[in-house]
Amino acid sequence: VESLGFGHIHIFSYSMRDGTKAANMPEQIDSATKKLRSQQLHALAKTQKQEFLQSQVGNSANVLWESKTADQYLGYTENYVRVSTTSKDDDIENTIGSCKLDAVDTSGGHLVATLSD
């Protein structure tokens, strides 16, 4: 996982299900080990997401602006990166527009962009 550098990782621990082949396999992993591995993977995923978002700063992207909050629009790039922007336009919701990816939001969860003219 470290060498691949994912932008997003969906993590869940295996839960034994009666009637499946996996439930009868030998050498089952105990809950404490599963929990520790999950925590380690979540920490790595957070670091890799931040590195990926930071690598996008300075690039231009097309964004589908999906929703508006009180002061900003939220959308996704073509490679499914969450982006926010402010706009003086009346309404860019449900449109695709070009923008410059300026920074990683202080929450670390998405990118902040400036709309292209």
Strand content: 25-35%
- Residue windows where pLDDT falls under 50 for at least 5 positions: none
- What's the number of helices? 1
Strand order of the largest sheet: 1-2-3-5-4
Principal-axis shape equals elongated
The biggest beta sheet, please? 5 strands, mixed, barrel
Rg for CA atoms? 19 Å
Mean pLDDT: 91
Note the quaternary state here: single chain
Order of helices and strands: HEEEEE
Instruction: Summarize the amount of helix as a percent range.
Output: 10-25%
Question: Given the helix and strand composition, which structural class is it?
Answer: alpha+beta
Report how far the terminal alpha carbons are from each other.
39 Å
Keywords:
elongated, 117 residues, 28% strand, alpha+beta
